[in-house]
User: What shape does this take?
Amino acid sequence: MNLTGEDVQDILRIIDGMEVDRLYLRTGRFELSLCRGGDGEWTQSARTTAEPVLVDGREVPAVQGVAAADEQTEPAREGLTGVRTPLPGAFYRAPKPGAAPFVEIGDEVTETTVVGIVETMKLMNSVYAEASGTVAEIVLGDGEFAEQGAVLMFIDTLATGVAP
Amino acid sequence: MILRRVLIANRGEIALRIIRTCRRLGIEAVLAASDADLDSVPARLADRVVRLGPAPPSASYLDVDAVLTAAKTAGADAIHPGYGFLSENQRLARACTEAGIVFIGPTVEQLASVGDKLEARRHAVAAGLPVVPGGPLEDTADAARLAAEIGYPLLIKAVGGGGGRGMKQVHDPADLSATVDLAVAEAGAAFGDPRVYLERFVATGRHVEVQLIADGENVVHLGTRDCSVQRRYQKLIEEAPAPALDPALREEMHRAAVALGKHLEYRGLGTVEFLVDVDRGTFYFLEMNARIQVEHPVTEAITGLDLVAEQLAVAEGRSLSFGQADVCFTGHAIECRINAEDWARDFQPSPGTVTEAVWPLGDGIRIDTHLQAGASVPPYYDSLLAKLIVHGRDRADALARLRAALARCAVVGVSTNIPLHQEVLAQAEFAEGGVDTAWFTRFLRDLPVGSSRG
Assistant: This one.
């Protein structure tokens, strides 16, 4: 059985009148830490440690957290600069489904050119090239998930005929 | 029918909130979780967990077939969709009915009646509710005549839009024709539905809503909530009852909401949203939300009811156990939505892993959260981390408790908007009560840069 907010309030009522400033409870299923501040007011920090149980009784497989991108995306040659996602999220190449992509391979870009969108927590964030040159390679496909710091595309900064 | 096992097709704090009530009522709670949420706090507290699908919502929480399959796998009697995701999805409601599973929400017909803006407006008019002057634009050539009837400034709204999307302001009649063309094109592209309508633009408006609970026959209102503190149409702070409202106007809003519920023979929890036109001292029907809402705890605080329990009772086919005269309102409640966003960096979202989550504890304080040390905040879903709700004797008491409670919140590992809430609570205008929906934007603009780094 786990504690509800009312349970915690009840525990607080019991210890509030005592000369106790900290309470730490730990069972096989939860941890609860109560702490009285200098102003006499309480804070709580709780942790449910019970393991989730799948319907068929199996244990839950390890869950991937917000992983950082692998180092697989090293530039293939000199002069290539990676455009990295500012946030982890779904990468979109076009402003909306069915629209033309922001950039294609070979397109010229400058630092402020929008080259894609990353959707994080239901918000759309523009991704800027942040380098001048031509688009040399697009690493992630439309709608693919970009891990934190992942390279979305490479810009060839040595390409000729590009204004600085 | 007695519900024995409920599938919760949602995540985060609302999943946990529903699990708690199921527990209390002795109903088994099975959580349908995406792969990103399999070891979340709600998954740990649920009796059982069913894998719903990959992390992206389109492959899990928004996938009707996946949810239905999960319910069958779990052997659930009912599906509680929470808010957002599939909570007002007619296809899920219909599929549930066909599969003999109870959809915890209104009927498919009622979802259809309030889900489409024009339909909802038609029903509101039929039930005698005031609506913002305006109307559907059948023919773009007709725009000038309709606009002249409504008066400027006005809004062009996409029928398929919502949450602030698909809306354009027109202040000058000279801009009307071009803006209408643009709005129609954008609505078609964004929502697959090019229909738009024109509406009077209310310069000083407040967002006030009335909570309903109904059993298909009896409709009871549970008072007003004010949700005028919004950023880009996302609510940030909600309170109950709505402050600084003329008592006669409040009564009229209660009556209007109940009239709409009766007209629809509504079943379940529903919220009737109104726009209060401050300058004209009147109100208009905006829309009806056919689900439990994020801000429901402020209503629970002032009524002493458990709205999820009431929802479950209605889903079991029972009549309301109380009437309007039995509903008592006590004190004042305010809720702050604590989001994972760096408000000092243009509200950039802040996914990651929480290393510490400390909350205030004391009389009149409630925290609804799925956060704990070690919990991950995935990038796939919205940024709501926790809701801090305080209940005081009156509004001044609630404000004082809220200020003290906010100062005792500590979340480490992701950025939160807690400092922003503290800034809002320090504003004299907010403390006075009754700010309009544009107030928050003005407040942000006028905020000294130094303090926004708090």
Remarks:
- The radius of gyration of chain A is 26 Å.
- The interface with chain B takes residues 2, 4-5, 8-9, 12, 34, 37, 41-55, 60-61, 63-66, 86-90, 96, 98-99, 120-123, 125, 145 of chain A (CB under 8 Å).
- Chain A has a mean pLDDT of 85.
